[in-house]
Design brief:
The chain is α/β, with parallel strands linked by helices. The chain has 2 domains: 177 residues, Rossmann fold, CATH 3.40.50.2000; 142 residues, Glycogen Phosphorylase B (Rossmann fold), CATH 3.40.50. The protein is built from 13 helices and 12 strands. It is globular and about 70 Å long.
Length: 354
Amino acid sequence: MVEGGIFTILDNCLQKISDYSENKEIKVIALVNDKSKFNYPNIEYIEFPRSKKSWLLRFYYEYFYFKKISKKIKPDIWFSLHDVSPTVVAKKRFVYFHHPTIFYKATFKDWKFDYKIGVFSVLYKYLSQINIKKNNAIFVQQHWIKKEFETLFNIKNLVVSKPEYVEKTTNEKTELEEDKIHFLYPSFPRTFKNFEIIFDAAQLLNKSIRDKVKFHFTTIKDNPNKFARHLYNKYNSLEEVKFWGNIDRDELLKLYNSINCLIFPSKLETWGLPLTEAKAFHKPILAANLPYAKETIGDYDKVSFFDVDEPRELAALITNFVNKTIVYQGNKTQIETSNQLNNWFELFDFILKD
């Protein structure tokens, strides 16, 4: 758990459990790749710097060495934060699942630009089921994932634990061209993020519309990622496209506050944080017509959905938005949310209860 959203989950969990354990009779031991990245009190860190060197080492740690560790430290609770259920000895065991590729069928493009996505899509189903029924509970981020897991693994001890989002906005703005209507897609360059549908839709627009719009993409410029280089080389010549490099959190918030509309076409997410962030800024949203997007957005009026494989649908929505003729579909929560956990403290209460 060393990069992107995966690291964020680990970092947030450690921060919150550090706060939670203060003035409680709780000893927290965290097994991490690099303990220099964390400075939270009330936690003892055990470092495994070689854990990211290879998958063979990862398998060794998860299914052999961690059992030895567990016998030594004798934990009451073993909480695995990265999808798989290790072979350990503990009174209670829990796993937090957040890797979406188990539900994804990899394409040639995935194998070409990021073979790990292909490997994950093939292997993760099998890795996830090892020891899965030995857990007291499996935490997932959304209700649709819970239903998929119940069907896939024939298990019932799933608990929806909604990602904790601390709303943060800003009144500051990024200076953008005043005569343009600005659309934003903030995402790391993964093949399943479906960037191409926006480029295809842009090229379907009438010239009068294309002249009025600007599409902004973060993390693409100067990114050594193979897929990022491909996108930059193929689409940077489009006048209506603006590629950004990596920008920090504060700059991203300023960009949210400056754009006119969020486009989020990703084919695969366990949450989709930009949807939540754009909603906090009360921005209009054009989103993938998929279960994750509707569950993340929840109750919201200024949203419409499009088929993730139909750029003409997206082009039509963009055209209507620019012409101010768009009629939003809106979205309403269709699920029962009273039995879900809504933050890390509620999750910790759950695993510690008798």
